[in-house]
Amino acid sequence: MRRVSVRAGLAVLILAGLSGPVLAEKAKSQESKNQESKAQESKAQADKASEAPGLGRDAINAAALDKGGDPKAASRKARAKDDDKPDPLTVKVQVLLDRARFSPGAIDGRDGENLQGALSAFAVAQGLPETKSLTPDVFDKLQATSPDPVVTEYTITEDDMKGPFVEKIPPKMEEQADLPAMDYTNPREMLAERFHMSRDLLSALNPGKPFDKAGTVLTVAAVPALERGKVKDLPRSPKVARIEVDKASRDVRAFDKSGKLLAYYPASIGSEEKPAPDGSAKVKGVAFEPSYTYNPKYKFSGVKAKSKFSIHPGPNNPVGLVWIDLSIPSYGIHGTPDPEKVGKTESHGCIRLTNWDARDLALHVERGAKVEFKPE
């Protein structure tokens, strides 16, 4: 270390003493500028988002299909749009499908396989030709299912802000077992799932609005809000007597005793590591807010545990908020911590639905209902 003379040292101390307040004031000024700059940047982003055409409540509720155009061309045009710009008509169609129990998965305002599958199933159920495009006939039938607005307002409550929330969900199952509950990580995640939406769409519909402040008025999808907790007096009507799991089209269909299609859900079904079973099974029972127990015999990739362990309940539990137990050991139909990935990724062998779809099916399925696995 280099030596400094006493005289030089005194000079440095005097200089420091004189400049300290000046430097502090400059630092304070710079910090203020940084905060102002960040605020202006955030406001600019919010203003830009708020100017996105067609994402207001009135525009989405009034969105209509151009019946003079080619439905297939319109569908191709929608798929070619910028992924960062949800389409108002697509939001409307997804909400109408969801309310009719033909789930498009997470409502995101974008075209994709989940939406196309739901449109096709709905068309067939209405006696129309099978189609993955939004035809005038399909759109008319959809609008006839409900006259209510497809997006509405929701005011964040004090109870919403109480959560509870967890700071972070560890990626490894062994570490997840250490958490007291597998809750949501923040209000935005909770609110998006409550209204069956992707988090990006929730943000796009509410530019610049805080999701962590009670009293904030949000625009949300007008769907039955996802509820929590156990349920009595099941099954509800209409009762599901048969479930069809299609491994090729990656979906689950629910039928009543007469064979009428009651509901359609996109699904993630099995994997190379643990493929979904063949043949048929029966529903043994339903568990709401289930724990998850890992057995080393599953031999999941990335899990090194040599003994069993359990993960506490919550929406971010590996099986989500619902477990529908099947007569095939270790297999079930269940929810997921990643609703936006349903139908797009593999599962650990079981049949994975969004939490709201899994709960909807659980509320209506009869004990002993037949589950048929259609081959790929």
From TrEMBL:
PROSITE patterns: LD_TPASE. GO terms for biological process: cell wall organization; peptidoglycan-protein cross-linking; regulation of cell shape. This is L,D-transpeptidase family protein. Residues 241-374 form the L,D-TPase catalytic domain. It holds the Pfam family YkuD. Residues 25-87 are annotated as: Disordered. Residues 25-50 have a biased composition (Basic and acidic residues). Belongs to the YkuD family. The active site is at residues 334, 350. One of its GO terms (molecular function) is peptidoglycan L,D-transpeptidase activity. Residues 1-24 form the signal peptide. GO terms for cellular component: extracellular region. Keywords: Cell shape, Cell wall biogenesis/degradation, Peptidoglycan synthesis, Signal, Transferase. PANTHER family: BLR4375 PROTEIN, L,D-TRANSPEPTIDASE. Pathway: Cell wall biogenesis; peptidoglycan biosynthesis. It comes from Methylobacterium soli. Gene3D superfamilies: L,D-transpeptidase catalytic domain-like (2.40.440.10).
